[in-house]
Specification:
single chain; alpha/beta; 10-stranded parallel beta sheet; two-stranded antiparallel sheet; globular
Length: about 350
């Protein structure tokens, strides 16, 4: 486990507004995501994560294809998903796609496996929501088998059994860093420990310190199971501008659009500026000047003892140009400040 703190950026390829205020075509958004990742690489940011969705407000449905394009235009940044919805995919194909990205990037690929917070992929690929738990449990078990390299034998209820089957291409190094993305379930934390896989905590609201019991549970479970302690990361939304006022003013309308749209589908009331300010002041929204965001990230790192922080820099229709500026400030100012604060 590396002692060096890592800093990443995540995007879901949110469909953004162009200079005329109209939403851009999804194809243009995907090309912009590649440009955002190239900038992150040039700034020395450690990781870029691209999420998987199957909706009209997010442009990326196959993160690995986008990551392959990013791999060809970058030198050192690690490339991963944020997250890959394993429940509605084939673990063998997921492994093959990521081992291919790993080959194209000279060993920089990672995968973050999760259930995803949306369910559109289930009907799309012919899976039943009633099988939600079984699908994830069995597919993760098969994926964990693939990570060991060599022939795989596996049996379960979600697909025909495998007998000494080899899967190609293997990764060059013989390993593929695989995180388990967890939103708020202790069972998922223990499952990550059982497979001895790194843990990625998706903290998208409330005080990040409330996740400390999950960190403790994860390490306790790993120790009891006789595993080796693995890294823990945090994924949270954020936005950096030159001043606190500017950051909040620029982010708020786009944050509200995204929250109210998703909230309407889930029966939540529209979000308010009071809620937004409370999340920015005390919760898991890292919005403000470089100093403000750096102090907040440093506090989370110290409170949870994590070794990677990933800021989700996209937020609804927030324009590409504003995200590029946010990435620039994150890489040139926020990250160096956080390193000083936690030294």
């Amino acid at each position: 486990m590396s002692d060096r703190m890592e800093f990443g950026l995540d995007t879901f390829g949110d469909v953004t507004a162009g200079t005329d205020g109209q939403l851009l075509p999804q194809a243009k958004v995907i090309r912009n995501v590649v440009d955002e990742a190239v900038l992150a690489d040039q700034l020395g940011i450690d990781f870029i994560g691209v999420g998987e969705h199957h909706r009209d407000d997010f442009a990326v449905s196959t993160p690995e294809t986008v990551l392959a394009a990013i791999a060809a235009r970058t030198e050192r940044i690690k490339l991963g998903s944020a997250v890959t919805v394993l429940s509605s995919d084939d673990p063998i194909r997921v492994f093959q796609r990521f081992s291919t990205v790993d080959a194209l990037s000279n060993g920089r690929a990672e995968v973050i496996l999760g259930r995803g917070s949306f369910t559109e992929s289930f009907p799309l690929f012919g899976f039943r929501l009633n099988d939600y738990e079984t699908l994830f449990t069995e597919k993760l078990d098969l994926f964990a088998g693939l990570l060991k390299g060599g022939p795989v034998s596996w049996q379960g209820s979600t697909r025909p059994p495998l007998h000494d089957q080899r899967v190609y291409p293997p990764t060059e190094s013989g390993s593929l860093r695989t995180w388990i993305g967890v939103g708020g379930s202790p069972e998922s934390v223990v499952r990550a420990a059982r497979y001895n896989l790194p843990l990625m905590l998706a903290i998208i609201g409330g005080d990040p310190k409330r996740f400390r019991p999950f960190v403790d549970l994860y390490y306790r479970a790993i120790d009891q199971l006789g595993g080796e302690r693995q890294p823990i990361g945090v994924h949270s939304p954020g936005y950096v501008a030159d001043t606190d006022e500017q950051a909040r003013e620029e982010l708020w309308p786009h944050y509200k659009k995204m929250h109210d749209r998703i909230g309407a589908e889930r029966g939540w009331p529209p979000t308010t500026q009071t809620v937004f300010n409370s999340e920015a002041d005390l919760g898991s929204l890292y919005v403000g000047s470089p100093e403000t965001v750096a102090r907040k990230i440093a506090a989370t790192i110290k409170a949870l003892g994590i070794s990677r922080f990933q800021m989700k820099y996209s937020s609804g229709p927030l324009p590409h140009e504003k995200m590029m500026r946010s990435i620039e400030l994150y890489g040139t100012k926020v990250v160096p400040m956080v390193r000083e604060l936690i030294a």
